[in-house]
Prior knowledge:
There is one protein chain. This protein is of the alpha+beta class. It has helices at 2-52, 91-100, 105-119, 144-148, 155-161, 180-189, and strands at residues 63-64, 72-79, 208-218, 221-231, 240-252. Strand 3 and strand 4 (221-231) form a beta hairpin. Helix 2 (91-100) crosses helix 6. The longest helix is centred in the first third of the chain and has 51 residues, at 2-52. It comes from Kozakia baliensis. This is General secretion pathway protein GspK. InterPro entries: GspK_central_sf (IPR038072). Keywords: Plasmid.
Amino acid sequence: MVLWTLGFLALIGAQTVATGREAVRLGDRTLQRVQLETLADAAITSELFGLVAGQAMPVPQWHNAPEEGNTRISVRSMADRNRINPNTAGNILLSELLAASGMSQDQSRALAASIFSWRTPANPLGFAGGRKRCKPIGAPFRTFDDLNAVPDMNPMILQALKPHLSFAQIQLPDLSSADPIVRKAIAKSGISNSPDQKHDDKELGEETLVSVDVLAARGRYRLGRHAEVLLLPEARPTPWRVIRWETTTRGEN
C-alpha cells in the first residue's frame, strides 16, 4: 500500500513538474512574441514616417533597420502599383485579367460583366437561372469574400486572381508592373499607350498605397509583420490610413 501511494505521488509530482515547465515555455514564447511584435510595429511606423516625410523612398529589397538590443530587424517597403483594383478597373481590363489567369474568353467576359454590374448600382443587372436570384449590392469590394459573392465566381478562379488584385490600390498599373499576368492583361486591354512607360520613383504622389514588411528575430524566435497603408501626407495627426496590418510569420527557428 505504501509503495502504491509513493508511486502515485511520484506520478503526480512528475506531471506537475512537466505542466510547470510547459507553462514556463508558453509564457516565454508569449513574452517573446509580444516584444518582437512591438519592435516590428515600431519599425513599420518609423519606415512610414520616413516615406511620408520624403526622407526615403520604398525599397523592395530587405535591408537592416537599427537593432534593438539583441533583436535583428529587417525591413522592406514597396509602393503598390503592380496589381489591379476590381473596384476601379473597367470591364475590358477585368475581362483580360480573367483571360490571362486561365479562363476562356467567353467565361472571362461574362464574369467581368458580373463583377462590373455587382459594384455598379447604376447598372442593375439581375442574376437568375438555375441559381438563386441575386441582386448587385452596388458597394465596393473590400475583401476576397466580397468578390466571392459575385455569381459565377468560384474558389478556383478566386485563388488564381488573388496574387493580381488589390482592393486599395489607387493608380492603375501599367506595363512596368512586376506582375506578368497584369502586364499581359494591360497589353491586351489596350489601356496602355506606351510599352516603355515607367513610374516616377522620385515622387510617391499625394495618395499612394504602400506595403511594408518587417522581420524581427531574437535568438531562436522570429516574427514577421505586414502592413498595407494609404499614405495621406496632409492628414493629421496620423498621415496614413491603415488598410491591413497583420502577423505573417510567428514561431521559433
